[in-house]
Amino acid sequence: MATISPPRPALEESFVRQGELLDGWVELGKQIGALDAQRAELLAERLDMLAQERSLEPGSDEIAFRSMCAEYAAAGHIPPTTAATHITDAWALARMFPETLASLASGAISKRHADVIVAAAPNVSGHPEAARLRGEYEQQVLPFAENDTAARTRTHARGVAAAVHPEGMEEQHRRARSERTVTVKSDGDGMAVLTAILPELLAYAIHDRLTAMADDVTHARPEGQRRPRRSALAKIRAERDAALAQQTPFDPEPPIDLENEFQHSMEKPAPWEKAAAERPTGDAETVPAEGQHFDDFIGDEHFDDVARDDDTVHDSTPMHDGYGALEYDTRTKDQLRADILADLLLTTTPTSVTTTALGSVKATVQITISASTLAGDDDAMAELTGHGPMTPDAARILAGRAGSWDRAFLDPRGMVVETDNYVPTAGMKRFLRARDQHCRFPGCRAPAHRCQIDHNHDHAKGGPTALCNLCLFCTSHHPLKHPDVDARDRWTAKQLDDGVILWTSPLGRTYTDEAPLRVMFV
Q1: So which residues are the signal peptide here (predicted)?
Q2: In this model, does residue 424 exceed pLDDT 90?
Q3: Going by DSSP bridges, is the β-strand pair 181-188/382-384 parallel, antiparallel, or unpaired?
Q4: Could you give the CA distance from residue 229 to residue 303 in angstroms, rounded to a whole number?
Q5: Is residue 468 a contact partner of residue 495, using CB atoms and an 8 Å limit?
Q6: In 123-199, which residue ranges form alpha helices assigned H by DSSP?
């Protein structure tokens, strides 16, 4: 769709101001990090004082600690348990991971990064070489955290912790599995929160299977009952772009208050509500008007379901309330997952309560296990791709039931350099899934099996179908570099050595995303 671009000077001024806003936002983030580091040091010093003052008074430590937490909770308007967590985490950060605290103070990482590093650290309390193990862990994790998101840092940190102290990690996993439970609590308005504490592998497998089953339900809907894939606000923007493209230089500019337009649109009845109001009552069969169905009102945009799970719909869209049948099935992906979970749990009977669920996993999960561990020669931790380490016993069970295996060759750093059965198409896909593991936009963790393969240099413009020109992008970030996107919004991606992706934003800023290394469990 053609658009009218603003005059060149105005566009340049806009880019300059956008850059200033971005730089200001980044600088404030660094200042907040420095303040968070100061707060952590203050809390750590307070806990040190308590330990020194009460060291000669046996039996008083618990009450003293509780009293201290109560005072900080009252002063900070937070629950006492939250205050206790803040204090103990701050002490661990300041006294056990000083380099991480220094990085936070300099603004190189955020408080969220620091919390992840502390939480994922190996439990080496009482170990004769505890300081050395913590230092080795911090040296491997901190550089990663300074160049990536907190979510990705968590996955990397958990892998490093398992590699640095595998005995402790395996024991932590065994202890955590003993805490499996299911709880429920009221959430108000007739709703409740059902929480299941499960092994990580099973939890992600359940979620993936629910997603796949929700996709099946969505694809099975009659064409006229498929729900819109764009939010009302996105439609308003599209309509405005169309008006801009058609206006003459002397036409008044269309309204730019998109939020007001959005609110106004929400007050209008949805198309199916109009149809319901006009439908005759009684036993007479209702036939839709000639050539009209639900898709006439929403256009022909049908994006891949994995692009967005939190699809926005009209407030008056008829939703499933969890009871009975629907005339129009317009449930969101989240609602479908919840309904399918309830259906499965309430309408099936377990065949056995003594067998393991690992043998029944039908969802899509990817694990990496060394050949020596698979053969039983050692018990090195395996990896649940995208999430962290898993016990070798669980990995062997899954590998024994896998329909196919992909063997990956790794260099000493953990980088995948080759896969078996290399062929021009399927082999390349296997290699890319193994190398990239997730979407290669900075910070994105969309898993590989929900991503698209992109030619970094457009194939239509001579880009080769080669590994050095291919990588995985999710359906949210892949369109950002499409040539049809307005130049003011278009990103570019270029692949450098070692699979590093260099992204260039519309403002000319560059961001890199490195291929995630496989943690080498020894």
Answers
A1: none
A2: no
A3: unpaired
A4: 6
A5: yes
A6: 130-145, 150-164, 166-177
User: How far apart are the C-alpha atoms of 520 and 382, rounded to whole Å?
Assistant: 9
The CA distance from 229 to 239, in Å, is 16
Q: Percentage of residues in the chain with pLDDT exceeding 90?
A: 22
CB distance 180 to 139 below 8 Å: no
| Neighbouring residues of 466: CB distance < 8 A, sequence distance ≥ 6 | none
> What amino acid is encoded at 446 in this protein?
A
462 bridge partner residues: none
Q: CA separation (Å) from 470 to 432, 443, 467, 501?
A: 8, 19, 5, 10
Residue 112: how many other CB atoms lie within 10 Å: 16
Pairing of strands 408-410, 416-419: antiparallel
Is 372 within 8 Å of 380 (Cβ atoms)? Answer: yes
> What average pLDDT does the segment 1-9 reach?
59
> How far apart are alpha carbons 235 and 258 in whole angstroms?
10
Q: What is the CA radius of gyration of the chain?
A: 27
| Kind and range of the H or E run holding 73 | helix 61-76
Q: How far, in Å, CA of 52 to CA of 210, rounded?
A: 53
Buried b (16+ CB within 10 A) or exposed e, 118-148: bebbbebeeeeeeeebbbbbbebbbebbeeb
Q: Which tokens go with 110?
A: 């955020």
| Closest alpha carbon to 341 in 209, 437, 143, 490 | 209
How far apart are the C-alpha atoms of 12 and 274, rounded to whole Å? 47
Specify the higher pLDDT residue, 56 or 312: 56
Q: Per mean pLDDT, which of 148-162, 257-271, 377-391 is the most reliable?
A: 148-162
Give the span between the Cα atoms of 86 and 79, in whole angstroms. 11
Helix axis angle for 98-106 and 130-145, nearest 10°, is 20
pLDDT at res. 461: 81
